[in-house]
């Protein structure tokens, strides 16, 4: 099992939770091909809306990747994003701020937001456990 963070706005997280899926990189397939069924994926939302809305800086959802492959869906005539199925786990949102000193993927504690600009990226098991505990998520 691998552990991932997907950085997307909260409104996109909510749509994914409701639909049981995730997207990354504005619907591109390539990032999603890194994921395997059973992997843990944690969602970080810097804000409520993409390039707008309120500042959040919170982990907003958590779940396990399901199914074998990415799939494409038609949202509109011009937008057909790739998605992966996710089985979401009950949790609470958790601010990243108190976790920064202990997160391994944040190597520069002053410029802590830099790694979160990567979109979808792998993290260590210990970071995943730390974040899941802050979110009060039961992963069993």
Topology:
Elements: E1 3-7, H1 10-19, E2 21-22, E3 40-49, E4 52-72, E5 82-88, E6 94-95, E7 120-123, H2 125-134
Parallel strand pairs: 1-3
Antiparallel strand pairs: 1-7, 2-5, 3-4, 4-5, 4-6
Order of helices and strands: EHEEEEEEH
CATH topology: ph1033 like fold
Name given to the CATH architecture:
Roll
Global morphology: globular
- Count of folded domains: 1
Query: Can you give the mean pLDDT?
Result: 94
CATH class: Alpha Beta
State the share of residues found in helices, binned by percent: 10-25%
CATH superfamily: ph1033 like domains
* Total number of beta strands: 7
Please report which band the strand proportion falls in: under 5%, 5-15%, 15-25%, 25-35%, 35-45% or over 45%. Answer: 35-45%
Alpha-beta content class: mainly beta
Q: Biggest β-sheet, characterized?
A: 7 strands, mixed
- Work out the radius of gyration: 14 Å
Number of helices: 2
Ends distance: 14 Å
**Uncertain regions: pLDDT < 50 for 5+ in a row?**
none
Summarize the structure.
This protein is mainly beta.
What keyword list fits this structure?
single chain; 140 residues; mainly beta; ph1033 like fold; seven-stranded mixed beta sheet; 7 strands; 14% helix; globular
Task: Outline the structure in words.
The protein has 140 residues and is mainly β. The protein has one domain (3-134): ph1033 like domains (ph1033 like fold). It is built from 2 helices and 7 strands. Strands 1, 2, 3, 4, 5, 6 and 7 form a 7-stranded mixed β-sheet that branches. The longest helix is centred in the N-terminal third of the chain and has 10 residues, at 10-19. The protein is globular, with a radius of gyration of 14 Å. 32% of the residues are buried. The mean pLDDT is 94.
